[in-house]
Amino acid sequence: MQKIDLMVKGTLVPMVNENIISDGALAIHDGIIIACGKSSELLSRYQASTVLESEGSAIMPGFINGHTHVGMTLLRGVADNAKNLQEWLNDYIFPLEKKFLSEDFVYWSTLLACYEMVQSGITTFADMYFFEAAASKAVAHAGIRALLGETIFLQDDISYAQEFCALPKESALITSALAPHSLYSCDAQTLVKAYAVAQSLDVPFIIHVAEQNQEVVQLQKKTGMSPAEYMQSLNILSCRVIIAHGVHFSDSDLEIIGKSGASIVYNPTSNMKLASGIAHVKSMQEHGIAVGLGTDGSASNNSLDSFAEMKTGALLQSLCLPDYCKPLTPFEVVKLATADGARAIKMGSSIGTLEVGKRADIIMVRYDNLHQLPGYDLFSQFVYSSKSTDVQTVIIDGKIVMHNRKMITLFDKMPQLRERIAFYHDKIKKS
Ligand SMILES: [Zn+2]
Asked: CA 364 to CA 425: how far, in whole Å?
């Protein structure tokens, strides 16, 4: 019998296809899935130091939050009356960031975000914000996997972002990226220079594109080009690029993006809240684009909840005209948050499905709570009737981060976190 670190037993939902393995098990050693199959077979081959088993729970890949701004979690609820993205940014967010943004603010915001994400089954997130080095400390403490993109507005920000990418990381689960804010807030030179740095460091390039119609109209006026044409003309469109939003892409934009290998992250709640519009997920996929699912930041969502995002994302797609954009099936929605989400943030070879050789990022989700029953289809249960509180256990890179809803990491920081939340709440409220 081979000795291993961990075995999890239950109904396996590997997300490779729609197949579900009842009485399944995963063997995990050194943070990697080394076997996947029927539990009787795995029990005869492996002796695990720890065995986790729960009847009525599905074992599935952890969710991937493909786009967020964890450093602004302490701004949750400060701008709920903005009527669109521009008003939200210019009248609320930018002035507050100018006043309050600091390493301390980002650290505690990130810690709060990590707590909420782990509790909802998110095991990996892709971020775009400032002071990512401070965020790294919270991420490492939480034991969550993260792609941290340092935001760039001006050329001067590039060297700071470059330094962050080159820094040794606080945890092996952290990778870095360059993240110019958008095509409308960064000039062409900044975009080109930032892309060159991302290329030289071989890291992803994260950017908001075509979030709102106004920016597309203005870009057309200024350059005579659509967003994808403009990116192509600057040579900043490739498989390195992760686009957040893409609500207002034309078919020809999607064709250009599909050929480039760039991916798109769909942020339905934020797009509704900031009146941005409806991204056409099926059209993107038909053009061969990897599409993930994101919450965006807490100031425009206001939750970092994968189940809420799946349901909202599915419902919003159903609002599209049938001949324009077909509704997503529940399986396709769960795929956005797992396998496709991993591909969208360029981690498809290491996470996103439960397969031998992949990192052991696994969640155990109950499917027999009364609010989920009768339960005719497991994927439908996950998308339409489950809640984040149905997540029982979270394993990241083979380590148990939450078990039976009790945090294994982060619990030691809770008293101080509550104190810092109260501190910033008072400061922001008085401002
Ligand atoms: Zn964003």
From this structure: 34
Q: What is the CA radius of gyration of the chain?
A: 21
Residue 307 and residue 197 share a domain = yes
pTM of the predicted protein model: 0.97
pLDDT per position as a tens digit, 176-227: 999 999 999 999 999 999 999 999 999 999 999 999 999 999 999 999 999 9
Q: How far is the CA of 206 from the centre of ligand 1 (A)?
A: 10
Q: What is the pLDDT of residues 130-149, one digit of tens each?
A: 999 999 999 999 999 999 99
CB 106 within 8 A of CB 45: no
Q: What CATH number is associated with residue 383? A: 2.30.40.10
Is 100 found in the same domain as 52?
no
How far does residue 68's CA lie from ligand 1's centre (Å)?
6
Distance in Å, CA 181 to ligand 1 centroid: 8
Answer yes or no: is pLDDT of 323 > 90: no
**Residues 366, 281 share a domain:** no
CA 256 to chain centre: 24
User: 221: domain range?
Assistant: 63-344
**Gap between the Cα atoms of 366 and 125, Å rounded:** 22
Mean pLDDT (the chain) is 96
Number of separate domains in the chain: 2
C-alpha of residue 297 to centroid of ligand 1, in Å: 6
Task: State in Å: Cα 320 to ligand 1 middle.
Answer: 23
Give me the residues near ligand 1 (ion), CB cutoff below 5 Å. 244, 296
Contact 122, 306 (CB under 8 A): yes
Summarize pLDDT for 11-55 with one digit per residue, the tens. 999 999 999 999 999 999 999 999 999 999 999 999 999 999 988
